[in-house]
Amino acid sequence: MICLARSDRSCGLDARCLFLLVLGTRWTGGKTVNMLSSKAKKRISKALYGVEFSSDYPSPWRMDGSHEYGRWSRPPPYMVRAVIELLAGGRVYSGGDKSAWETGLTFEGIQWCIQDRRRSDWILWGPPGNRSAADTLAKKLTSASRILDGAILEFGREMVGQDQLALQNNYHRVKNMYEFFRNHVDTTLKRIDEFRRNRRLDIAEGLADFLNERFGLDKELEAYSLSAIMFFFAMTEVLLDCCFALGDRGGHTFMEYRKLDWGERFTRFFAVGTGQAQSIYEDVLRARREHRNIWAHADPVLYVPIEGVGLIPMTYDHLDKPSMNFFSTIDAGEAQRMFAAFDALLGLFEDHSLGWYAKNYADSGLPIQIAQPRADELRGLMNDKDAFMNELEERCRYQDAVDNMEI
User: Fold this and answer.
1) Could you give phi then psi for residue 353, rounded to 5 degrees?
2) Region 251-259: what's the mean pLDDT?
3) CA angle at residue 39 from 36 to 48, to 5 degrees?
């Protein structure tokens, strides 16, 4: 299977999946592996009973008065195509404008046409007045696709356990969200600084208005900061996945690696034992512990009832948790320290022998190849930054051609 996807585009993953499959088999690591059990093949044949495919297919623009009976995105068109080509003995042909393929078939003595639309959904065409037959045909194709999807899921679990997989690359999406909220943080910090320097309490105006404006700025800073923190760590997750793809895996599978906590995964590739790197790492880890983890999991402070007193925290050490601050969990000073540490951490990637390649790999938007042979292709270029970037650019050009339905 070749699955090509650029996550920074607007349409979904299904719209860009190309399958190169042989009937009932799949090519993996130089060996043909049986993908479908005989039971699954029989179930699919039963689901498609009465459906016959022909090379003399009725293209919708060659069918007089053809009627569109519906369009579906689930099952996605790549799955319907796989059922037709691999399991039903049919062929697909080049489609028209904004269509990757189409094919014809006969069901209940009626000629039909199935047509892809932008690789995102598929359309069923046929003569008018055959709604019942059209609904039955659509159900048959859906049922057969679901069976095939289940077989791929079962096979896929085995492949994932062997690290024969690639990851959707969400780097651009989470980076854009981080930068969006980070910009709001910077703007709010400037407004707070202006308030402190220029705003004076006016007795005539009243203390309440003065405090509401001040605390309102603190609340904005808290909201933007916490949102930026979430997406900062999401962004670093993608970068660390790229480090795993390109770096020394230490005998771990990807799923084993992903079970490690963030700090363990980071220190697997970055030495942070001394000096500035240690200070940066500790500041970032503190931000993760005190701000990201508490709010991402809505981690509550635990109270216990004491007779004659009421509810008190299990330990007064909990009073130091940022979430116990009534007004705001992040003040201006904390925000400045925290985001300075975030900037410095991203700088470590730029200056690191592995981090530089991982960051540019993530920035390409290409799927992150975990499968060893595919990852080795890129790893072999990591002694030459120009060659590495040229390879990424070439793959991006190919992906653009897929996205634009040129191939």
Assistant:
1) -65, -35
2) 95
3) 90
Alpha carbons 333 and 259: distance in angstroms, whole number: 34
Would you state the structure tokens that stand for residue 273, as one six-digit string?
């034992």
CA-atom Rg of the chain in angstroms: 28
Sign of CA dihedral 124, 130, 135, 139: negative
Cα gap 336→342, rounded to integer Å: 10
**124 Cα distance to chain centroid:** 30
pLDDT tens per residue across span 363-382 = 999 999 999 999 999 999 99
Residue spans of the domains in the chain: they are 2-161, 166-291+334-403
What is the token pair recorded at 393?
A: 């650019």
CB atoms < 10 A from the CB of 11, how many? 13
- Is 222 within 8 Å of 329 (Cβ atoms)? yes
Residue (of 135, 129, 15, 31) closest to 81 by Cα position: 15
Q: What does the DSSP 8-state code read for residue 84? A: I
Instruction: Output the 3-class SS for 378-398.
Output: HHCCCCCHHHHHHHHHHHHHH
Orientation of helix 207-246 relative to helix 171-198, angle to 10°: 150
Helices (H) and strands (E) in the chain, counts: 13, 13
DSSP state of 300: P
Q: Kindly tell me if the per-residue pLDDT of 23 is higher than 60.
A: no
3-state secondary structure of 305: strand
Cα 263 to Cα 288: distance, rounded to the nearest angstrom: 10
Q: Residues 74, 117, 27, 360: is their CA dihedral positive or negative? A: negative
Record the pTM: 0.83
Percentage of residues in the chain having pLDDT higher than 70: 86
The two structure tokens encoding residue 23: 């009937």
pLDDT average, residue stretch 154-177: 93
CB-based contacts of 370: which residues, under 8 Å, 6+ apart?
A: 163, 164, 165, 166, 167, 244, 245, 254
Q: Give me the residue label for tokens 């000096």.
A: 275
82-91, 161-170, 197-206, 272-281: range with highest mean pLDDT: 161-170
Question: What's the rounded Cα separation, in Å, for the pair 371 and 281?
Answer: 30
Burial of 8 by CB count in 10 Å (0-12 exposed, 13-18 middle, 19+ buried)?
Answer: middle
Tens of pLDDT, residue by residue over 256-291, are 999 999 999 999 999 988 788 999 999 999 999 989
Q: Hey, how many other C-beta atoms are within 10 angstroms of the C-beta on 30?
A: 6
